[in-house]
Design brief:
DMT family protein, 4 helices, flat, about 0% strand, mainly alpha, about 70% helix
């Protein structure tokens, strides 16, 4: 149960972080933000990233083996990175129609899955 909760919280945290890091690139298409300066965009992105911490910190605390969770520190990091990349790919394909997912990206993801396998191998 702690493992699923950890992964769920990491997914939520990465949704906010991806929006904070890359969502602002689409803000200019929204009427409210079309004239926003860089400082405004930084503060908006920072505000979004704050919500990432509301999920990331509990996920790591719940999931960490040292706190009674099922994952080592290395395992938590690898899980987080894979979730980050999957979230980013889905986000970029949904919101940036000019981005494409090519065969070399698929091969890279296969290598990431191999990394997960080896990190979790006893």
């Amino acid at each position: 149960m702690k493992g699923l909760l950890t992964i769920g919280l990491l997914i939520l945290s990465n949704m906010f972080m991806t929006l904070a890091w890359y969502g602002h690139l689409k803000f200019k298409e929204l009427k409210w933000f079309e004239n926003a300066g860089l400082l405004s965009i930084i503060f908006i992105s920072w505000g979004l990233a704050l919500f990432e911490y509301f999920f990331q910190v509990p996920a790591n605390r719940i999931g960490f083996r040292g706190n009674g969770g099922p994952f080592s520190l290395l395992q938590l990091k690898v899980i987080q990175e894979v979730i980050t990349l999957v979230t980013f790919v889905l986000f970029s394909l949904a919101f940036f129609k000019n981005e494409t997912f090519r065969w070399n990206h698929a091969i890279g993801f296969c290598f990431l899955l191999l990394a997960v396998y080896f990190i979790f191998k006893k």
